[in-house]
Amino acid sequence: MRLRNIRLFAMAIATVLIATSCGGTGNSPQSASPDADCRVIKHEAGKTEVCGQPENVVVLGPNVLELLLALGVQPAGFADQMAFHQGKYDNPSQQIPYLGDRVKSQPANVGLTYTPSIEAILNTQPDLIVGSQWLEKEYGNLSEIAPTLLLEWFDVEGNLQAIAQALGRPELAEGAIAKRQEKIANARKKLAPAVKTNPKVLMLTASNLQEMVLITEGNSFCGSLMKDLGFELIYPPGIDRQDANLRPPLSLEVLPQFNEADSAIVLGYNFKDSSQLEGMEDFQERQLSGIEKSWQENAIAQSLDASKAGRVYFIPAYLCLGLPGPIGTELYLKELETQLLPSQ
């Protein structure tokens, strides 16, 4: 994953040619068409006109798939971030990490997020394509197939509104946004005892102890959510914790400098040999087994007070880095509650 892939997740991508396309950025949807059955949607690649109510929707990336599912819509085609599965998604629960059990259709496999198959997309006969901003080079080709939206990875609420308006059902976004906010508020209440007793948290993402990156409030939803829950993230002196582009590498040797942390959260990942997975349980196990074992066997990592107190928690990075929307948020909050709160 290295630094480029931290947004994995900071990860995904898609697009459209329409008569009203023009330059521009931003995800906030705007209605501006004289045709009552058409809407003009602002997105990262410009503006796109969508008419009627799209039914065959192709999504390019897991972060976009979760938004579609959160709105109660099933995909006609899907491009995953990694080659977890080859062929049609005829058994999604075992083929699509974390989201598959919510996919009731059998969407066509249209390639990978960053390199979708134009031919496969054409075969689905889509009337809407949705991807992330990193697909700008493919935008023209995608636009010739169907109206296309390219969305910014972490703008969850803006993205939900844009997709819902493109679907001709803007009210769907209101419910999905409210449900997500409610889950965060409920988690804040549940986690209040943990915040009170162990407020200071070191948070990082890593596949191994030689490739660790510090998570801050500004560089990911993972960090900003911890702050919203009431925790205080620990940083080295002089760091701009609000810088969204900052990806501070963290060497093993400097870990003792973070000894003031009451606990540590390690967002683990491992996408090697991803096409050789044997079901989703194998996927989840693989994300954490390597980094957890390395941490437990390393003298420096074990020298931290958080390690000695048994307060180092390992959570798949995929949940909040790859799926910052309503579904990923729900799964991530459940992990936090399960691990940080004492068993009842």
Attribute tags:
344 residues; alpha/beta; six-stranded mixed beta sheet; five-stranded parallel beta sheet; 12 helices; globular; disordered N terminus; transport
Task: Provide an overview of this structure.
By secondary structure, the protein is of the alpha/beta class. It has 12 helices and 13 strands. The strands form 3 sheets. Strands 8, 9, 10, 11, 12 and 13 form a 6-stranded mixed beta sheet that branches. Strands 5-4-3-6-7 form a 5-stranded parallel beta sheet. Helix 3 (139-143) links the parallel strand 6 and strand 7 (148-151). Helix 4 runs antiparallel to helix 5 (171-190) and helix 5 packs parallel to helix 12. It is globular. The two termini are 36 Å apart.
How many H/I helical runs? 12
Quaternary organisation: single chain
What's the alpha carbon Rg, rounded to whole Å?
20 Å
Structural class: alpha/beta
Integer average pLDDT: 85
Fraction in beta strands: 15-25%
How many β strands by DSSP? 13
Backbone shape: globular
Q: Would you list the SSEs in sequence order as H and E?
A: EEEHEEHEHEHHHEEHEEEHHHEHH
Characterize the largest beta sheet: strand count, sense, and whether it forms a barrel: 6 strands, mixed
The termini sit apart by: 36 Å
GO cellular component, one term: outer membrane-bounded periplasmic space
Family: Belongs to the bacterial solute-binding protein 8 family.
Organism: Lusitaniella coriacea LEGE 07157
Subcellular location: Cell envelope
Quickly describe the structure.
By secondary structure, the chain is α/β, with parallel strands linked by helices. It has helices at 62-70, 118-123, 139-143, 156-166, 171-190, 192-197, 221-228, 280-297, 299-302, 305-308, 317-322, 326-340; strands at residues 38-43, 46-51, 57-60, 77-80, 108-112, 128-132, 148-151, 200-206, 212-214, 232-233, 249-250, 263-268, 312-316. The radius of gyration is 20 Å and the shape is globular.
